[in-house]
Structure formats: C-alpha cells, structure tokens
C-alpha cells in the first residue's frame, strides 16, 4: 500500500494557505508510531506511549496560553465593558470597538489552536482501546478515554460559544493513499454542523466521561476529573441550546458534595508570597511563589513553577517576580473605567484590589501615566491560571433559581460571595422582582469573575449584549469610538477567512 504524491501536495497547500500553528487534524507524521507486521497503522505502540500522550493532553491548557487564556480574555473582557484592548493594534482594537472581521489573526490562531487540541484528544479517544500492551489495563484505558472526552468537551464548549456552527471532528484522519483517498480526503476538510449538534456532542462526551474519569483530587486540580465534567455540565446546561436549569442546580450541588466551596479569603485565589519579604518591589528577580494552588474553590487550573513559569503574566502588567521585565510597552486587557466604577459603587469591596492595580508608566493611552490601571489577577510567573472555579458554578445556580422564580434563594447565594468580598447582604428590594434580582446577579458575576474570561459570555447567554454594549461607549470616557453597533448577529464571531479559503465546506457566519 503506497502513499501517493497528493499527500505532499495537500499539506503544502495547507501550510502555504494559512501557516498553521497547529495542524487541524491528526496527521501521519506526528501522531503515529509505525506499522505492525500486517501493515496496520499503530498509533500507540505500548503503555509508555499512551502515558506520554496523556501528559501531552494534561499540558495543553498550560502550554496553550495564547488561545486558551490570553485571547479568551481579549474576547471576554475587552470585547465587553470590563476592559479596553490595552495595546491598540490590528489584533486587539477590533475587539474593543466592535469591528472584528475574518481577517483577524487572533481568531485564526485560536481556531487552529483549538482544532489542533481536538485532534490530540481524538488521538487518545480513538486509539487507546487498540493498544495490546497487557500492562495497560481495561480500567486505565477507560479512564484515559474519559479524560480525553472531558477535554474535548471543554474545547468544543469554548469553540461553539465563540463561533457557533463549527466542524464536529470526533475521528482521526488517516493516511491518504491511492486506495483510501475518497474516504480519507474529506476528513481533512470537515463541514460545519449546527450549534445544537455541537452541544449535544459536548453533553455526550461529559456524561460518558463521568463514568470513568477519576474523582476530584484536592491536591491536584490539573486533572480532568468527574468534578471538571460536572462543572462543564452545569455551564453547558445554562446555555440556550440545551438549557436546563434543573440540571444546573443538580451539578452545582454535586460539586459541593465533591468538596468544593468558596475560599475563605478571596485574595488567596490570586495572591503571591514573597519568599524574601524584605526585598523591595523594584528589585528584579525577587523570589515569589503562588500563595495557593489546588484551593478548595479551584476546579481546574494550570500550575507554573520555577523552570516552567507562566510567560503570559508580562502581557498584563508588571510581573511581581521580575519588576521591570518588559515593562516598556503597552499591556493587554486594561481594566475599564466602567468596571472600576462598578467596583467602587459600594465601598469596601475586597475584590477590587485583587483585580486592578495602578502603576506609573511611560505611556498615557487610557489613563494618566502617573496612575495607570492594570489587570492584577495574573501578577506573577508562578500564579496558577484557574480555568474553572466554584464561585462561577455557585453563581450559575443563582441564575437557575432566578429562572425558576426563587429570587430569595438566588439572593442567598449572591450574599455568600458578597460577604466574602466584605460587602453587606443585598437589600430586600433586590429580590422583589425578576428585574431587580437579575441586575444584582449580573453585577455580582461581573465583579466576582472580573478579568477571568466570563463577562462577554454572560452578556450573550442572558441576551444583554445590545443593552449593555451599545450604551457603554457613551458613558466610559476612556473607550475609543464604537465602530459598529452590536446586534443579534454580534453574538458569535467570524470564522477566520483563510480557514474558509482553505476549507471549501465552511461558510462565514452572518454579518461578517
């Protein structure tokens, strides 16, 4: 069975057309390990190979900080009322002024990164059962497949919320040969499916993942556990395509039964500790460690240590472990005046000082140079990046209670995060009507989860984009002029144009 020259032609076209950072699907060169004696392709030759790939999957969030975290904050915070772009340029400004087009290079990076990660998850899902190494038990195979399905669901959950209709890829593309070209070739150019189908696949992956994934490990929140699946299920059932608020409540309660709770002190989630407290802030390379990893509130996180530090911190402000490192140019995700106004509307909110910090700079684009605002939640190269935490899911339970008419129950949940923040309970008037409790809820989610990648998706989920975003430009003096008004077509973003050019089966989203 001989490969034909079309392989080289296809991949040359792929690379030339879009310069992918990641291949969109599995390829022969990097995802197979040879042939068996009967010429059957072998993906994992033994247990060691499976374990190696499992570690690759564990590290995807940690190593993919650009598309998993940096760009997600740009979309969720700078494309909402929480932040300015921070560093105005062709990549970032469109998110700030609502002029995003399919040519945006960040969106291309994100699409290719996510599709590449799906291919890696599919490699485990589709091939681990084929491993003949007797030392790899059936229970281990089931666990590793479950973990990969939870990962795939997590990736698709982000993709469907960003782009809506996306390709559903659940198989691994094989080699193209003279005998298989008709069957295999289409797998390299998959069509889109509707968002409902994507959500149904996410649901299926998570429910299957729940069966064999490991239980929550309080000492290691980097694992794809049953608790991660439950948190994703709670988030997924709050979204419109499969909305089921009873299930949001169910999975939020199951997370509590798994041992999750709010940290006593909000600052523990983001703070760092100086190992030499006498070291002045201006001293470079002072030793700083994360105050808390694997907190009782963290559901899933990426962790960073000396020798494998978090590079993205210097994109947001001063890295406290290296005070002057790269602090000579504008930073991304600059907190907005509107967000600061929301924080200071009630005195004493402890979350404010953990979210926003002010430094003196050499520039004055959004604020005066002598008092310039920066995002503060990722403040050290050793901060954990928390992808999911219990406060998010707990507040989603409040949203579910509001939808079910239990305004008092929702207020009780909101008061839990308010008390931790040093605020008093909501007034009784806040739970007098759906409008008043929903307003209190949206404000609480905004402040509790500020600059963590939630705000835009909250506005979309609750149909608040036009109301909030078309009004913020007039009341926030630091925000550049709005390019286009937000409409119902703004709820999803454009598919990268060069990805469409590469794949004739993709169609651009309406409005772009």
UniProtKB/TrEMBL annotation:
<keyword id="KW-0998">Cell outer membrane</keyword>
<feature type="signal peptide">
    <location>
        <begin position="1"/>
        <end position="22"/>
    </location>
</feature>
<keyword id="KW-0732">Signal</keyword>
<dbReference type="GO" id="GO:0009279">
    <property type="term" value="C:cell outer membrane"/>
</dbReference>
<dbReference type="InterPro" id="IPR012944">
    <property type="entry name" value="SusD_RagB_dom"/>
</dbReference>
<feature type="domain" description="SusD-like N-terminal">
    <location>
        <begin position="56"/>
        <end position="237"/>
    </location>
</feature>
<dbReference type="Pfam" id="PF14322">
    <property type="entry name" value="SusD-like_3"/>
</dbReference>
<feature type="domain" description="RagB/SusD">
    <location>
        <begin position="383"/>
        <end position="512"/>
    </location>
</feature>
<dbReference type="InterPro" id="IPR033985">
    <property type="entry name" value="SusD-like_N"/>
</dbReference>
<comment type="similarity">
    <text>Belongs to the SusD family.</text>
</comment>
<dbReference type="InterPro" id="IPR011990">
    <property type="entry name" value="TPR-like_helical_dom_sf"/>
</dbReference>
<protein>
    <submittedName>
        <fullName>Putative outer membrane protein</fullName>
    </submittedName>
</protein>
<keyword id="KW-0472">Membrane</keyword>
<dbReference type="Pfam" id="PF07980">
    <property type="entry name" value="SusD_RagB"/>
</dbReference>
């Amino acid at each position: 069975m001989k490969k034909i020259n079309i392989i080289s032609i296809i991949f040359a076209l792929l690379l030339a057309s879009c310069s992918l950072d990641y291949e969109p699907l599995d390829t022969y060169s990097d995802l197979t390990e040879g042939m068996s004696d009967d010429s059957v392709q072998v993906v994992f030759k033994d247990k060691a190979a499976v374990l190696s790939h499992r570690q690759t999957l564990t590290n995807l969030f940690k190593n993919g900080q650009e598309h998993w975290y940096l760009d997600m904050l740009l979309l969720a915070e700078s494309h909402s009322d929480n932040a300015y772009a921070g560093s105005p340029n062709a990549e970032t400004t469109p998110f700030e002024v609502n002029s995003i087009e399919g040519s945006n290079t960040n969106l291309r990076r994100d699409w290719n990164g996510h599709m590449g990660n799906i291919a890696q998850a599919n490699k485990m899902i589709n091939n681990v059962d084929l491993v003949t190494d007797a030392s790899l038990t059936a229970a281990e195979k089931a666990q590793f497949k479950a973990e990969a399905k939870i990962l795939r669901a997590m990736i698709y959950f982000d993709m469907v919320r960003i782009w809506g209709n996306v390709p559903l890829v659940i198989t691994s593309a094989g080699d193209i040969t003279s005998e298989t070209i008709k069957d295999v070739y289409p797998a390299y150019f998959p069509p889109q499916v509707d968002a409902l189908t994507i959500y149904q696949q996410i649901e299926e992956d998570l429910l299957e993942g729940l069966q064999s994934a490991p239980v929550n490990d309080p000492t290691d929140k980097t694992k794809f556990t049953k608790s991660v699946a439950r948190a994703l299920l709670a988030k997924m059932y709050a979204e419109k395509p499969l909305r089921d608020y009873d299930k949001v409540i169910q999975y939020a309660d199951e997370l509590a039964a798994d041992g999750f709770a709010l940290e006593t002190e909000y600052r523990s989630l983001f703070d760092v500790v100086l190992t030499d407290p006498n070291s002045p802030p201006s001293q470079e390379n002072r030793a700083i460690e994360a105050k808390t990893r694997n907190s009782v509130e963290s559901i899933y996180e990426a962790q960073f240590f000396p020798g494998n530090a978090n590079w993205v911190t210097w994109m947001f402000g001063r890295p406290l472990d290296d005070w002057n490192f790269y602090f000579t140019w504008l930073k991304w995700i600059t907190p907005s005046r509107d967000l600061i106004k929301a924080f200071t509307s009630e005195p004493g909110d402890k979350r404010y000082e953990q979210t926003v910090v002010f430094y003196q700079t050499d520039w004055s684009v959004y604020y005066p140079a002598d008092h310039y605002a920066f995002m503060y939640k990722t403040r050290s190269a050793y901060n954990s990046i928390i992808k999911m935490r219990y406060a998010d899911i707990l507040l989603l339970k409040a949203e579910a209670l509001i939808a079910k008419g239990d305004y008092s129950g929702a207020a009780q949940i909101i008061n839990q995060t308010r008390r931790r923040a040093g605020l008093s309970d909501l007034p009784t008037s806040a739970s007098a009507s759906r409008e008043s409790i929903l307003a209190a809820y949206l404000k609480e989610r905004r402040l509790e989860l500020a600059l963590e990648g939630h705000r835009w998706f909250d506005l979309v989920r609750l149909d608040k984009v036009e109301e909030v975003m078309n009004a913020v430009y007039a009341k926030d003096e630091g925000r550049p002029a709005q390019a286009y008004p937000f409409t119902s077509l703004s709820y999803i973003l454009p598919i990268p144009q060069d990805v469409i050019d590469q794949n004739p089966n993709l169609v651009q989203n309406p409005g772009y």
